Amino acid sequence: MQDSKDFGINRRASRRYITDSIDLSILFPAIKESIYGKSKDISLYGFSGIFNHYISVEPLTPINISIKLANIEKKLDYNGHTIWDDDTQMYGVLFDQSECHAKNYILLKSYLDNLNKTDERREKERRHCFLKEAKTERIKDRRNEKPLLTKCFTNNWKEFLKKQGNWFKEFHIISNYSHLEGKEVSSFTYCNYLGIGHDSRVKQAMADAILKYGTGISAAPMLAGTMDLHKQLESKFSDFMKTEACILFPLGYSASLGAIPSLAKEGDIILSDEKSHASLIDACGLSKAKTIIYKHNNMDDLKYKLKTTQGNKLIITDGLFSMNGDIAKLDDIYDLAQKYKAVVYVDDAHAIGVLGKHGGGTVEHFGLEGKIDLVMGTFAKAFCIQGGFITGRHDIIEYLKYTSRTYLFNVSLQHYMVVGILKALESIKNGDKRRKKLQYNIDYFKSKLSNLGFDTGDSHTQIIPIWIKNNKKTKKLCNALIDNNIIVDAVFYPIVKEDESMLRIVLNSTHTKQQLDNLLDCLTKIKGL
Description:
- The protein is α+β, with helices and mostly antiparallel strands.
- Helix content is 40%, strand content 22%.
């Protein structure tokens, strides 16, 4: 086919407009008909058409085309002849340029000018609306424009939390007793599950370490921050967990923040229990992987989401859930991970030292030692010493040491804490009596509590929730217990969802029967408040 300019069509000037109809009158006696269609391009110089009929004509057949434009009474008439293109195997029309100008120029120019004016008017109206909305937004922004720290000095947020009952008090804690406003109260709030936090041997070992090595380490692990003590703890703790290697972090929180973004990259899939700890939620947010939430401890939902997702998969869960007190179905999770080729990451902060025959946590509880890919936790619970860890295969742990930002750019776990953890580890390994005493307290308290009709969910561990599901009532009950010299955790938004408020009772092996009975008596008294 000839170049489009030979048809009297200037592509740069052309604009696409719809015509009402195209009357095609072929100056050949055999064919005369009206064909409806749409113009492809129309300009001051001509047009090319899209017709809804197939017309068989010979090349060089004289042809006249009459176009009725939308909203225009008069028609445009063109004379020309048909041509045939061997390359495209298509017909074309070659117009008489002089007739295009002479007959149609004025009318077509007027038509296109009107269209241009309409477009300009619409564009002007659009810009006017846009500028008006933008101005409104700027005024609105200026009204809300305040210095960055203003929010910190106003009392709006305090009043809101107090009105909702979401206001905390700070307590001075000593052993199982706390001091509040000058009086001694029994505490069921802290996670010194086995009482190791007040073990004289642990305290002495930490004090000796400070006298020997100073107050702390001021370097990152990879930059002169690693001591023989760290290597010793890594070795002993990985043996305790029956894994190949261990990496130490300054905090349990920083362990997940460093590891998960290093492991799960863009294109990978993270499947996380909806009740996972805040550190896991934040770690997923830092990762570029897609995070999918599955219903709490619901293996059918996890199975469905594993089955219907494509890519490398990482399953994340707590071992012992810190608010609900229930245990993850780790045996089922492991089976699903094997079936769907997923990696398993367990936050076992609240189970290490407590669950399992030797305190190996949820993994030992289910007999899965050496099978779970990564077990993370903190020493701040049963060990009652600050610090975090991750155990697993040697290659994975070595990779984390070179890629976890919270490991590379944090100072090392302090040496006196390492010494204390090593000493506490000995107590935990040989702490069967402590675990039995804790289990006795759990069984005794739960059996008595069930008779009172409180909702404690699926907890069978040292963390026992009493579901209230009302912020104000939860705070009211908590204050009533304080009035009776007992402290429990009042847990509400933003720690949990607004309709999941609770009293959380944390039992330790050092709680006495008298303390448990006092708490039960008080719960009986305040139940109807």
